[in-house]
Amino acid sequence: xxxxxxxxxxxxxxxxxxxxxxxxxxxxxxxxxxxxxxxxxxxxxxxxxxxxxxxxxxxxxxxxxxxxxxxxxxxxxxxxxxxxxxxxxxxxxxxxxxxxxxxxxxxxxxxxxxxxxxxxxxxxxxxxxxxxxxxxxxxxxxxxxxxxxxxxxxxxxxxxxxxxxxxxxxxxxxxxxxxxxxxxxxxxxxxxxxxxxxxxxxxxxxxxxxxxxxxxxxxxxxxxxxxxxxxxxxxxxxxxxxxxxxxxxxxxxxxxxxxxxxxxxxxxxxxxxxxxxxxxxxxxxxxxxxxxxxxxxxxxxxxxxxxxxxxxxxxxxxxxxxxxxx
Length: 326
Ligand code: GDP
Hints:
The protein has 326 residues and is α/β, with parallel strands linked by helices. The protein is built from 13 helices and 7 strands.
């Protein structure tokens, strides 16, 4: 693969080249890895930034419906929209949802849109890196908005939040009056909560749910660096396209405020640092477990611990000390 050729095409916004470039960054092969790093390095110089929007919600809440109508609304405004999914396909009910052809069918036909199916890798660290690099590629390709979707399972929200400028939590209207078992940590990350399906018979329940969450989210998290009223909870109907323009306006308000106050740049900077450190940590783990001597020492110490000859902590401390000396 000619890296300079593909870099040029990606920079020109060629969607096929973008798809190939993402395939390259997903590859586990050593030579591909080197090419992927070179590609990223070349494209970094363009200095292009998209608005990265992380979107989380449990299966069935309406994420694909939302992305389709929200994406179409943006495309009509002339914005270029890319959609990426973070979760390994095994984490999704019913297989790879993004692989399902009926998902976002209309959006996928739009010339200004780019939709990338979920990768098949299951290792979260690998998925995080691939998504991060795919986001950067979409930015280099000149997309204005990159939507990064995740289902509400495991740690993928944290990954998405660390990749996004804005984190949106999509909820369904609740029947009862208790909060829907949404993990506190996810709520704390949300900049905007959207209660979907605010239409027909669900409308009243959606309004109640919105009010519940508006109160809860403000108690949970008040960011001194955000303007008054955020985090916000709003109602939308992805199916009927209701409230989407308002949601977009609120997103822009928040983003503009953060840009004007330097928080956009500082968030990007701390994310870059986070991913660098994460990459080093992952690399160290891989290097250690690939080393036969370390693996043998691990096995031996593990046996000793299992047989009660030493404590887990003593054995770990000894092993780490030996590794540190090398
Ligand atoms: P996902 O699993 O989060 O991607 O959810 P989907 O977008 O596939 O939607 C799950 C179900 O909810 C589908 O049957 C949709 O038609 C329905 N749905 C999605 N958005 C809305 C909405 O705004 N209103 C109503 N009434 N149903 C919706």
